[in-house]
Amino acid sequence: MRYAGIIKNDLAAAPGVSLTFFTQGCSRHCPGCHNPQTWDFCGGKEFTQDVLDSIIENLYANGIKRTFCVMGGEPLENENLFLTDLVISNVKQALPDVEIYLWTGYTYETLQRRFNEPRLKSILDKINVLVDGEYKEELRDITKPMIGSINQRILTLNK
Ligand code: SF4
Fold first, then answer.
1. With b meaning 16 or more CB within 10 Å and e meaning fewer, what string describes 113-152?
2. 27, 74, 91, 132: which has the highest count of C-beta atoms within 10 A?
């Protein structure tokens, strides 16, 4: 299993401080993508138990409660579903109060048609906020928090 990287103290992804996990692999190749190094499913780094332990240990490190942010790459691409579910399920089990935000190029309506996929449903049942829709360079707007283009939406799934 491959992942692209982790930012342990991310002040840009979501309100407050976040720990951000980047999945590896994305077949969309949106023009203007800021993370083209995450496109190759064989790129990035090997995911290990130590990486998972480090995520859980660092979410509340130094008494700071962080939001857990998951982005890519494409966390909900078929190749990444197993790892995305594994990481989110373990975080939720160890730290039930942690808020989880996930960014995806799929729209929520498209994902609803895939609810029969157990791993996808497991993920969507656990995340609090979904930022959906693919990045569109012609709709780019850097003034809005958490999105890159104005077609993208910030949806609260679970409170
Ligand atoms: S979905 Fe995200 S990671 Fe993939 S190409 Fe588009 S902007 Fe880049």
1. eeeeeebbebbbebbbbbbbbbbeeeeeeeeeebbbbeeb
2. 74
